[in-house]
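Replying to the earlier thread about multi-chain prediction with a worked example.

Input:
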Amino acid sequence: MTRPGFVLEVDERTPPLLVHEGEGFRLQRFPLGTRVIYPPDALPRIRDVRGAIRHALANPHDSEPLSELLKPGMKLTVAFDDISLPLPPMRSPDVRQLVLEEVIELAARKGVEDVKLLVANSLHRRMNADEIKHAVGERVFRSFYPNDLTNHDAEDGDNLTHFGTTDQGEDVEINKRAAESDLIVYVNINLVAMDGGHKSVPVGLASYRSVKPHHNVHTMLHSKSYMDPRPGHSAIHDSCARMGKVLKDAGVRIFTIETTLNNETFPEPFGFMNKREWEWSVKDQAVYLAAKKANDAAPPDLRHQVWMRLQSPSGVTGVNAGDTDAVHERTLARLHQQQLTEVDGQSDILVLGLPYIGPYNVNSIMNPILVHCLGLGYLFNMYRNKPVVRPGGAMIMFHPAPWEFHQVHHPSYVDFFEEVLSETTDPSTIESKYEQHYATDPWYIHLYRKSYAYHGVHPFYMWYWGAHALDYLGDVILVGGDPKTCARMGYRSASTFRDALEMAGETVGRSPSISYLHVPPLTMADVR
Amino acid sequence: MARSRKRTLAGELRDVAKGWRWGRRPVIPRAAEAHTPPPRRWTFPTDWARTPAARAAREVILSGVMKPIVWNETSPEVFGLDNLEGLRGPVMFISNHSSHLDATLIMTTLPQSWRDRTAVAAAKDYFFDVWWRSTFTALVYGGVPIERGGGERATDKVRELIRDGWSLVVFPEGTRSTDGWIQRFRHGTARLAIEMGMPVVPIAIVGAYAAMPKGRSWPRPGRPPVRVRYGRPLFPEEGETHQQLSLRMQQSVAELFDEDRTSWWDALGRAHRGQTPKLSGPAGPRWTRVWEGSRPVRRSGKPPTWR
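Result:
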């Protein structure tokens, strides 16, 4: 049986603990009594993944087997998760490739000819040919790209279908090809509890008009937490579920295939990053030291290239197929088994080491807004029931947050950072005053559709993801953060962890309780 | 751009060293003890330590380094090596065990022809727990790991060695004495001797506890006297049980102690009458046993006139 996660209380025997800080890492000593939240060990991987996929397709939950849904002459659209998953990108073969090959094999055997593949990139940047090839595999790529394997275009008005609104007045508009298909097969990788379910088709194949109803400040403030998609706990997931219902009522048939991965995040020789520090072998210690010194000494460009080339050796732990709700329920159970650690009560301070990668900087640069999204948006929300930190508490993150942007991938981010954040950091003000302009700017739309840029509105969403944390926390301190960047984002910068604790003392008192969420590998706190 | 302060290599080394496990067992944070699996069962390979090159290196280390150190820090005397004459290996050397000096004393007092084909059986959990100690034990003592209380499987490697003609140094008490007195002999040694049909040479090491008891890593100052007495070999007899052989082994070590305290003739007489003093120490509180056990051993001969 896999070792469950646990909470370590730092004592005098505890060695310095690994902390990620962007494209770097360090061993950091923590004050005695600090609680360190570790995830369960990696679940055993499925040895015969193809067999598991075939079994899932033949024995779906609340649905007929896929082979019975496939008929000659039908219109089939197969959509799959985009570049934002998994993290880091998975070593070949990507699980999407394995699932797609099985689905397409079935379709070919059943005589289905009209097959289109769609990258469900929503308002994210388009995936380039190499990225698509890595995700789907050479055989699928050669058979379908570029004509029948394309990125979804959320701004192509002629190729969107509007299904009306939900009972809450939310527009439901998705890709026309998918909407008109006899069957949509959605291939998902569920990295965190936020992913999957009705967030796949109603968001992944949606237009700006259809994303806006749930990607807004009000919804974010009422999503406590994003990582807890149970009805009533996350407004964004409730909204997606309503949209899913509209699609279902309109006769859109979706066959969902969801997969889960284990916690083997880093490949060798960086395997020490997956381990608990006191279990490091002499080899692990030596590799740490060598990697740390080489990483610190490397020129920034080279360092960036090395990190971006890391591919995770993650193993597949579950494959479920069938009706979206029935599948997602099982997916979440498996995910919790891998990530959930029970934590007793809240702390005054939450400490996070932000890794080099998030969903929106794969093969790109983690700019300050993405740092905000990763820290205050995603990792702060890695809890169930209640946050790890108390209301009004402080959050200390490790990241250099350099003032750097990828000019091709994140053009609207540059302007958002320069024009919007220099005026205000308040999400509501930003939303009401600036969002519409950025979302409809023809140049950003052009770059989104024809280049490889994230949609003009995307930086706004990144800022909104952090709205709940901004509203909840009393202080945000970035250890090693660029002071100018921090000042622009409303954070405080500290040069050392000790300084950060000193600064946080102004908010939470002189003897604060501290919790360190030890990520990655991904950990989710079940706070009781 | 303000990056976090870069650490020097020395600083990094210090950080890593805090988690470095040179010690006997890994230090596990208390809160993690219940969540940490026991270490994997793995046996340090020692075959390399019996190659000609390693044996040559061992001879150099024992004769050129260990013996000068021990002979400089203590005053060893050796008796009874004539008992080995005419004997052919493999044999089992058994001794009382109260100090880390014991194995060194035996290996450095054995004649070179014996030493070259003798290995020391060492507790796996202590001497083979970390790589550097394992390497040291295997190279310097030709050590082979034995699992304490490990049953048949624990001695598989030892059997293999004996079949290859290697003699063995074994401490049948299983661990060093904490009070200087002899503990009960474990039966595994006698059982192995009977099974392999090999003679057992008893050895009494007197004064090692006083010189360097458990807890010390270097002998006491003043070159304390230590005496190593080799006894007559014991041959397992037809139909003898391991309990009986084990008792004979204890008795012969006790006789050697008696011989050291008095004389060979007196000890023989007492042994004949069944009056050899027991080596389990005086009854009573622990301090009395430690007190008596650590009583300085008399020096042989006349004391030097300049003291």
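Chain A is about 35% helix and 20% strand.

Feel free to reuse this layout for your own posts.
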